[in-house]
C-alpha cells in the first residue's frame, strides 16, 4: 500500500475528542502520523453515544494491514461535515441533511454510501391515542434536522397544521427524553437513544415517522472530493472496511449493542431497543436516492437551506458498487 493520503501529515484537530481506532469492541492504540509504506492513519468522524453512527468502531478489524482507523467524535453532524470539508478528518459517518446543506453551499464533499436508515421516533404521552389528540399539544423537535422535516410532513399528512394546531419546541437531541419525562413537552419527534429512553419511561409511539416520501433516510458515509481525486485506492479500501462493518452490525446486533454499551456506557436495554429501530446499510440505490432527493426538496421548502444541493455530484456510488464485499 502506498496511499498518498496516508503519507500526509495529519492536520491537528482542535476541539475534537479523538478516540483510538478499535479492534472489534476493544480499544487499541493508534497514533496519527505518516504511516510509512505499510499504511498509516485514517481519521473518521462520527457522533458520540449514537448507535446508528457506530459503524466506524467496527472498521478496524477489516482494515488493510498497517492501516489504523482513528475515530474523532463530535456532538453534531454539522460539525462533522465542517471537519470533513476542511480536511481535518478524512471520512465521516453523519446525518444526510448536513451533507446536503454542504453541497448546497458549494462545498466539494461526496456521499459515497448510505450508513443507517431509521433511528427516529415520534413518541409521547399515552393520553395521545391518535393524531386528533395532537391538537394543542407541545411537541419537541430538533431544528434543522431531518426529524424536523419528518415531524412537519407527518403532522400535515394527518391533517394537523404545524404552525397553527400544535406548539413546536426546538430542543437538542439529548434534552428530548428529559423534557418529556419532566412534563415540559407532551411528545417529541427525535432520534435514538432518546426515543427508546422515553419508551422505557412510559411513552408510546404516536405515529410512524417513516411514512413520508423521505422514508427512513438518515445517516450517510462520506468523504471529500479531493480525497477521491488524490487517492481512489484508499477510498476503495476504506469503503470495503465500512461495508464489512455494516455487515457485522446486521448479522450480529448483540455485538453492536455490546459495543455501544462498552464504548459509551449506555443502558443495555435502552441500547437494545434503539438498535431495533435502526437499519444499517451502505447502498446508494435508486430508491434511496429518490428518498434523499425528497429530503433535499423539503430542506429547501422548510428554509433549512437557501439553495438546492447538486444531487448529480454529491452522490458517488462508485466505490460501493466496485466493492467485492457488497451484495
List the helices and strands and how they pair.
Elements (H helix, E strand, L loop, with lengths): L3 H4 L9 E3 L2 E2 L2 E2 L12 E8 L8 H4 L7 E8 L2 H10 L4 E5 H9 L4 E10 L1 E5 L13 E4 L4 H12 L9 E4 L5 H6 L5 E5 L2 H7 L3 E4 L9 E8 H6 L1 H20 L1 H12 L3 H8 L2 E3 L5 H16 L9 H4 L3 H5 L5
Parallel strand pairs: 4-5, 4-6, 9-10, 9-11
Antiparallel strand pairs: 1-5, 2-3, 6-13, 7-13, 7-14, 8-11, 8-12
Helix pairs in contact: 3-4, 4-12, 7-11, 9-10, 10-11
Mean pLDDT: 89
> How are the strands ordered across the major sheet?
1-5-4-6-13-7-14
* Major sheet size, sense and barrel closure: 7 strands, mixed
Broad shape: globular
Which stretches are low in confidence, meaning pLDDT under 50 for 5 or more residues running?
4-38
Report the C-alpha radius of gyration, rounded: 20 Å
3D architecture notes:
This protein is α/β, with parallel strands linked by helices. 38% of the residues lie in helices and 22% in strands. It has helices spanning 4-7, 56-59, 77-86, 96-104, 146-157, 176-181, 194-200, 225-230, 232-251, 253-264, 268-275, 286-301, 311-314, 318-322; strands at 17-19, 22-23, 26-27, 40-47, 67-74, 91-95, 109-118, 120-124, 138-141, 167-170, 187-191, 204-207, 217-224, 278-280. The strands form three sheets. A seven-stranded mixed beta sheet has the order 1-5-4-6-13-7-14. The chain has a five-stranded mixed beta sheet with strand order 10-9-11-8-12, with helices on both faces. A two-stranded antiparallel ribbon has the order 2-3. Strand 9 (138-141), helix 5 (146-157) and strand 10 (167-170) form a beta-alpha-beta unit. Helix 7 packs across helix 11 and helix 10 (253-264) packs across helix 11. Mean pLDDT is 89; it is low at 4-38.
